[in-house]
Amino acid sequence: MKKKLLALTAAVALTVAAPLSALDRLTIGTGPAGSLYNQVGTTLSTLVQSHLGITGAARPFTGTTSYLPLVQTGDIEAGILGGLESRDSFAGNPPYPAAMDNLRALLVVSRPSFQFFTRASDGMTTIADLRGRRVVTEYRAIQAFGEVIHAAMASGGLTDADVEPVVMAGIADAITGVQDGRIDGAMVALGIPPLRQADATIPGGVRVLTLGPDLEAVTGVRGLQVSTVAPSPAQVGIPEPIDAVSFNTFLNVNAGMSDDDAYALTRAIHENWAEAQEALPALRGMRPEWMVPETLSHPYHPGAIRYFREVGMWSDANQQQQDALLN
User: Fold this and answer.
1) How many CA atoms lie within 13 A of 118 on its CB side?
2) Which of 15, 244, 296, 314 would give a disulfide with 309, using CB separation of 3.0 to 4.6 Å?
């Protein structure tokens, strides 16, 4: 009887400890249809489906605030999330009421550039020109994005007290607001289709602003970088090079995903990155060697770490940061 009880206990323990079964579906949470995150999620789900035979789909939401908790609980398999919101949600920093400690990164999938845009006819060219204007300072659907907005504003010496602050649901609403004349400036990902559509609709088109002289207001925020965006057919509203804000964007999963599944997903995306770049021009500036950043904002999944160790991209410094984040 004792042997049977021990065997049953061992079987139960193995069941509890066993990883999730191999994925047969990958749902990636993204921003609204047409947004940069949605385009990236669609491209990656298609890539994974092609190379792993897993049914893949990008599921659009109003913003990251809506689907980040679903990645935390495992109700969706993955989500496209910025480094700042990944950092703050994992740690339970404001505006997140509790730590989302099941969040794990597979890899960095893009370093998009963000900047304020305005109606070109308004004559603004720099962040400082937003003074006294109606400016979107908060997106309800992207809670952590306020830090990016205010860093850019600070480069031009501006705070909320220097503008007429406006709170909007998401980037799509803000673009429509500028287009309709209800607001004067909003920060968006550059080169996205909704911005191109606004440029074609607004008389005189749009104008993308450039950062102010205090670039340390941006680089002093952990996880933010200054990027220079040059005029190109892929961009609208940029007649001359401008300085914008960029940050790492991750494909995040739940800690409960099996190591083998996380390894397979990471390998499929990394090895076929050129295919993803061919499918989505917005990814062409993203180098594969950036998929593991020098400074981790939140932990990586052990399956992803195993793959990046194999290809020589996971350093001792990365492991020290990983250990510190989890202990």
Assistant:
1) 19
2) 314
Nearest CA-CA partner of 182 in 129, 146, 133, 132: 133
| Total Cβ atoms within 10 A of residue 21 | 8
Nearest-angstrom CA–CA distance, 288 and 233: 24
Based on the domain organization, do 233 and 266 belong to the same domain? Answer: no
Is it the case that residue 246 has pLDDT exceeding 90? yes
Reported as type and span, the H/E element at residue 154 is helix 146-155
**How many structural domains compose the chain?**
2
- CATH number of the domain that residue 133 is part of: 3.40.190.10
Return left, alpha or beta for 271; rule: phi > 0 is left, psi -120 to 50 is alpha, else beta.
alpha
98 with 150, same domain? Answer: no
CA angle 180, 186, 187 (to 5 degrees): 145
What are the tens digits of pLDDT across the range 49-106? 999 999 999 999 998 999 999 999 999 999 999 999 999 999 999 889 999 999 999 9
Domain that holds residue 103: 25-111+248-326
Please report how the helices 302-310 and 259-271 are oriented relative to each other, as an axis angle in degrees rounded to 10: 50
- 239 and 253 in a single domain? The answer is no
The answer to whether residues 150 and 172 touch, using CB atoms and an 8 Å cutoff, is no
Query: Whole-model pTM?
Result: 0.81
| Beta strand spans in the chain (E) | 25-30, 55-60, 78-82, 103-110, 113-119, 134-139, 164-168, 186-189, 206-208, 224-229, 242-247, 249-254
Q: Is residue 278 part of a domain?
A: yes
